[in-house]
Specification:
Elements lengths: L26 H25 L8 H24 L6 H26 L7 H11 L18
Helix pairs in contact: 1-2, 2-4, 3-4
Amino acid sequence: MNTAPPDPTTTPALRAAPAAGPAPAGWLARLRFWLGLNAALLIATLLTRTLTPGAAPLTPRGVLLCLLLTALGFALGLAYARYWPLPAAAFARVGRTLLLAVPTVGLSLALGLLLRPEISALVLALAAFLGAQWRPAPGPMPTQSRPPQSR
């Protein structure tokens, strides 16, 4: 008669459940972040135009351009973060940020010269920077049905 305890790796009922990671971030979380970014940028733009003497009022074209530039920058930042995730080392983070910032600021300046937008084209660079740093909120903590076994 076998009195040894069952092997947890072979007994289906005792196998450890796979660890659940953070909840997957869907398009809704990204959309909420982008809308919040636009709300903050548009409020800042309206305040600066109000406090600047002689500044023209913001038109619907300027608002649409701001939405377009932040969407483009945020998408660029998300793509950048997907292919080059944020490293743990501080110096590597600085290098990665510079390699993102230099082209996006150049693209922003070029768009600013070509389009002559009512709003600063540097919002593209800001949105790209924030998109590259964006992380989804962690999901619910996984629960364990039994204490973990030591190995």
